[in-house]
Amino acid sequence: MSSYFSKNLTEWYKKNKRELPWRQTSDPYKIWVSEIMLQQTRVDTVIPYYERFIKAFPTVHDLAAASQQQVLKCWEGLGYYSRGRNLHKAAKMISEQYGGNLPSTYEEISKLKGIGPYTAAAVLSIAFNQKYAVVDGNVIRVITRFYGISDDIRKTYTKKRVQEITDELIQSSNPGEYNQAVMELGALICTPKNPACERCPISQQCISLQRMETDVIPYKSPVNKIPHKEIAVGLIVNENNELLISLRPEDSMLGGLWEFPGGKKEKNETLRQTVVRELKEELGVDVEVYTKFRDLNHTYSHFKITMHAFWCKIVNGRPEPKSSTDLVWVSLDSVDQYPFPKANKTLLNSLKQMEDRNMRRFLVS
User: Fold this and answer.
1) To 10 degrees, what angle do helices 175-188 and 117-128 make?
2) Does residue 217 belong to any structural domain of this protein?
3) Cys-Cys with 109: which of 40, 103, 208, 209 at CB 3.0–4.6 Å?
4) Residues 160, 166: contact at Cβ < 8 Å?
5) Mean pLDDT of all residues in 296-317
């Protein structure tokens, strides 16, 4: 069964694999960058980011020499920004301690920021031809269906079982090709819904297909309802028609990115009261809240938000970064040099699309 699986799978892959930019190189640095970007992100989304990133930082030394702001700006919109921060930190370590060469042992590569078991196995197998089997969502789906494993894939023991199976299946001759073949099958054929079993190279021995259980395997137990948060932010304009933005602390969610000051609405609080309280806590100023600019919805991995943006005017105090790393006044013409999270970027784009860019007109004197 195992020889049938591996042989048919790799033969299918050689004929049907997608021509992706990171498959056109043997450079461990570029393969590593692609694997970090592909974590929890669709291939089609990653391609333009990968190409832009490699153009900006063609070597690990280039990445190490860049500022974190330059890296995050290049990463802007890709999400899961800790990946970009960790990639940058790891690049510095590789440049300084390994002479610019990505470590080629499991022990050493695992010391780098942002590299866990999956990434270590992927890079070592693809870039260094070492026999380490990867397990991601695609692999879990293929293996559980092929072997008819109906246990909850959220459970650790199920993931451990899948890892043990893949460790036995992986080929010694070309482990990188094997790993990519399993993931490719999960992405193109053994999809979460409506798998193309009629085109699957291993369908003849697939247990879940024989049992007509491809719609219930893999089984994933339901999660709790995703919480929703109301966020209110202030658009503060100075006499030079510039907006105030704040830098999130590096150790926080979305760390190293810029945003409009504000925060989460508390119970029994109006949105306007939220803005007043948050700006007092974050900036140490008293503000008068004027008209609302716009609302927007955004979904993160574990929660959803509705962001409400209000035009505000400082009536007492001078802004100081009490809960942020830094504050900057920026014009709409110069703001593009700063990296923003997706929701703030959407808000910013709305501001830039205004026909009349005199933002002070929104404030009542």
Assistant:
1) 120
2) no
3) 103
4) no
5) 91
- Specify the DSSP class assigned to residue 224: P
Smallest Cα–Cα separation from 258: which of 339, 333, 336, 320?
339
Asked if 224 contacts 346 with a C-beta cutoff of 8 angstroms, the reply is no
Yes or no: say if 244 and 282 are a contact pair by the CB < 8 Å rule. no
What pTM, to 2 d.p., does this model score?
A: 0.85
Specify the pLDDT at position 364: 59
Q: How many domains does the chain have?
A: 2
Q: Which domain holds residue 90?
A: 2-210
CA 328 to CA 351: how far, in whole Å? 17
Tokens representing residue 63 in the block:
């990445």
**Tens digit of pLDDT for each residue in 129-167?**
999 999 999 999 999 999 999 999 999 999 999 999 999
Q: Which residues are catalytic?
A: 35
Q: Are the beta carbons of 196 and 142 closer than 8 angstroms?
A: no
pLDDT at 301: 77
Q: Nearest 5°: CA angle at 307, between 303 and 309?
A: 165
DSSP H or E stretch at residue 31: helix 28-37
Q: For residue 218, what are its two tokens?
A: 């893999």
Each residue of 208-227: pLDDT tens digit? 999 999 999 999 998 888 89
Is the torsion defined by CA of 326, 79, 217, 133 positive or negative? negative
pLDDT single digits (tens) 83-131: 999 999 999 999 999 999 999 999 999 999 999 999 999 999 999 999 9
HSE-up of 342 (CA within 13 Å, CB side)? 15
